[in-house]
């Protein structure tokens, strides 16, 4: 039983538009600046990441201050601390256009990051107190500021891409008093306090983009309610369009995407798309992935789509597999569920449905022969073998959030979400086969 023909829905049209906004198309536009300025900051960030800094230079130079700050928030932090080396590399993209372009990009940063970057780039000495100015170190660049108030010694200059002295001189030319205050702060402010403050404000900005705190993000793995809560929409919609990187998995047919194709209510669909962005962002945080790695981001988006499909199938038929999961009736019934259930709870149902497979896998590893087999090093001769595929499946199922793997002999490590009752049936059959192999049971 197959789907009846469905016209291009609003959701599919939105996915098509998102994919059409990819960077290479954008670079060919005659109105590049206007189109870049119209992009949501998150989408602009992923476009730049997909293109790479060098190719994306025209987009970076057309970006708004908010977009530039988003790039830095997502790409120039190492854990809970801003990374001056990454920030230096990001600023280098602008220095090629001259000192003024570099200074403008620097001024787009929030003040805390400006101070921390300067503090990590130069040692600052008070030139008015000559007795406390140390002797210049060999091979360490030194320079007086234009107002002669400070002596600056470059830090780690050989590993930096921009000339920090040029940046500071240009900033002086643009705002003498402001730059003096910046250097005073970099000299005297406590770095730890500044980092804590910068992290606090960054966390707020990331929440505005739809990236929740870790504790809130991990709630997507909580036990789901058995009925849709009356106050299911507890989070305000995120004002963002669907980024192309997130849209990619949703162009493929699944129970979730086919259900979305049958929703015509504009307000409902807008809210659902906002929830998709939130859920992918929350999954990124919960899985411990960084938005820096767009390969992993795409994998997380695909994982979310698959888990949502499994959640819908579970809600439609918890006791047994759907008779026609690819049929029109299943898609229509799933669309009704999307009106009643928040995506987070549908995701939770999908996650919970897959958890018993993890328990079965953990039980298998209690068999000493299985543990020894799983610990054996992988060799090239095993790459295309059934043995290697089964190992990768078991390793994926043992993750905190079990996944499907070992389905592609050419890429045995490739993982994807457990997305349907059919996936579950196939995995259970393979686990039974492994159990029989090591215990001789049927």
Output the helix-strand order.
Answer: HHHHHHEEHHHEEEHHHHHHHHHHHHEEH
Shape: elongated
Radius of gyration, taken over Cα atoms and rounded to an integer in Å? 27 Å
Number of domains: 2
Question: Which percent range describes the beta-strand content?
Answer: under 5%
Low-confidence stretches: 1-8
Q: Main β-sheet, in a few words?
A: 3 strands, antiparallel
Structural class: mainly alpha
The total count of strands amounts to 7
What is the residue-averaged pLDDT?
A: 87
SSE topology sketch:
Blueprint: H1 10-20, H2 23-27, H3 32-37, H4 41-51, H5 57-62, H6 65-75, E1 77-78, E2 81-82, H7 84-95, H8 99-107, H9 111-121, E3 122-126, E4 142-144, E5 150-154, H10 164-174, H11 176-188, H12 191-209, H13 214-218, H14 244-247, H15 255-260, H16 266-286, H17 294-316, H18 328-340, H19 343-364, H20 368-375, H21 386-397, E6 404-405, E7 415-416, H22 421-439
Antiparallel strand pairs: 1-2, 3-5, 4-5, 6-7
């Amino acid at each position: 039983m197959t789907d009846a023909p469905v016209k291009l829905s609003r959701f599919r049209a939105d996915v098509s538009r998102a994919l059409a906004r990819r960077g290479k198309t954008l670079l060919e536009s005659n109105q590049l600046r206007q189109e870049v300025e119209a992009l949501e900051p998150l989408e602009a960030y992923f476009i730049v990441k997909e293109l790479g800094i060098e190719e994306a230079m025209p987009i970076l130079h057309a970006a708004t201050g908010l977009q530039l700050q988003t790039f830095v928030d997502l790409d120039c932090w190492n854990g809970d601390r801003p990374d001056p080396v990454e920030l230096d590399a990001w600023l280098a993209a602008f220095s090629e256009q001259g000192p003024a372009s570099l200074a403008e990009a620097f001024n787009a940063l929030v003040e805390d990051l400006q101070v921390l970057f300067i503090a990590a780039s130069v040692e600052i000495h008070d030139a008015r107190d000559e007795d406390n100015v140390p002797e210049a170190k060999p091979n360490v660049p030194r320079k007086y500021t234009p107002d002669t108030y400070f002596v600056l010694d470059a830090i780690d200059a050989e590993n930096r891409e921009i000339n920090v002295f040029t940046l500071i001189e240009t900033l002086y030319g643009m705002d003498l008093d402001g730059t003096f205050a910046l250097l005073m702060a970099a000299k005297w402010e406590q770095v730890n306090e500044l980092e804590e403050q910068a992290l606090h404000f960054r966390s707020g900005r990331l929440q505005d983009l739809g990236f929740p705190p870790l504790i809130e993000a991990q709630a997507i793995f909580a036990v789901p309610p058995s009925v849709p809560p009356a106050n299911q929409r507890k989070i305000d919609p995120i004002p963002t369009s669907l980024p192309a990187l997130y849209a990619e998995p949703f162009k493929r047919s699944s129970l979730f995407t086919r259900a979305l194709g049958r929703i015509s209510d504009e307000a409902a669909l807008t809210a659902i798309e906002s929830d998709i962005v939130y859920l992918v962002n929350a999954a990124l945080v919960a899985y411990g992935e960084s938005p820096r790695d767009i390969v992993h981001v795409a994998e997380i988006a695909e994982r979310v789509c698959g888990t949502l499909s499994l959640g819908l199938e579970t809600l439609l038929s918890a006791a047994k597999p759907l008779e026609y999961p690819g049929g029109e009736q299943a898609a229509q019934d799933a669309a009704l569920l999307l009106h009643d259930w928040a995506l987070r709870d549908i995701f939770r149902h999908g996650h919970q449905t897959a958890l018993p497979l993890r328990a079965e896998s953990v039980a298998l590893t209690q068999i000493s022969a299985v543990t020894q087999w799983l610990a054996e090093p992988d060799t090239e001769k095993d790459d295309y073998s059934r043995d290697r595929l089964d190992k990768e499946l078991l390793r994926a199922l043992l993750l905190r959030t079990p996944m499907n793997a070992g389905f592609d002999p050419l890429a045995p490590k490739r993982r994807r979400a457990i997305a349907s009752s059919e996936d579950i049936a196939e995995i259970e059959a393979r686990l039974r086969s492994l159990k029989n192999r090591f215990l001789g049971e049927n």
